[in-house]
């Protein structure tokens, strides 16, 4: 009997060891079979042109690690270059790894508005999952598209510095939509569009991130459907050398609501166009026309925002339809340096800041 128990214990230990052992993938053709394991290492994988690195269909609890350099073949297509879907998934990078999209092959200064058809980078549909310690370089257009619930993203570095001089455009860092309970923390984004673009979602925390060179940290419900943004905190972030610092941009003719959004302890440095902007007339080609009244902005708190705007820029701009700004609380605003005067409207009486 003791021998039988010992044998059964030994078999169980062997099975557990097999389960725990990682499966290394060096060729994308090995990936489907590797999904039988709960620990996958993607090492120096070259993804063929026009094909997604498909991390869907993973078992709950799977850990995926990037190792070495991941690259992608060139083709004009919409992508995404990587996609994932599942529950309880961990995606992370090992020391020294790099996901190099070589975006310059697609860049033409037009982003998603024309020219070459450019693949989006990473489409995420997850629940109860985390993504951490990823190093990403030169995405073609649009970075992490985040949908799902209970997702933790930390220590992700998006380096699109080359896009500043080589035609990068619409290289958003994090696009969040139809999401709930999302935390994005301690990330670095150097890009040519929004660092964060939050189109719809609830209970979103964006904290201690550095955004450089892009269009700032944006609350952005601007679609035709009813976009709802609620319970958002942007805390302890820095926006450096960017076109815009922080903004709430509701789309012209859009429908939805923005409620209970807080920007707190934000540093702005060398902002070119607008330090703080809230506007209700956004179009993808830029703001234009009178603001529309489809998206009320309620309980907007902006506290302890400080820094400088370059001389030709505007420190603060508020341009929303009458009655759309409700219960705002702004305090400790110290944004200066800009001299450009702009049209303002819709500012609540209790918000004691000067436009321009």
TrEMBL record:
It comes from the Eukaryota. Its EC number is 3.2.1.15. Residues 1-20 form the signal peptide. Keywords: Cell wall biogenesis/degradation, Disulfide bond, Glycosidase, Hydrolase, Repeat, Signal. InterPro entries: Glyco_hydro_28, Glycosyl_hydrlase_28, PbH1, Pectin_lyas_fold, Pectin_lyase_fold/virulence. SMART domains: PbH1 (SM00710). The keyword Repeat applies. The keyword Nuclease does not apply. It catalyses: (1,4-alpha-D-galacturonosyl)n+m + H2O = (1,4-alpha-D-galacturonosyl)n + (1,4-alpha-D-galacturonosyl)m. Belongs to the glycosyl hydrolase 28 family. PANTHER family: POLYGALACTURONASE. This is endo-polygalacturonase. It comes from Nesidiocoris tenuis. The lineage of its organism: Eukaryota, Metazoa, Ecdysozoa, Arthropoda, Hexapoda.
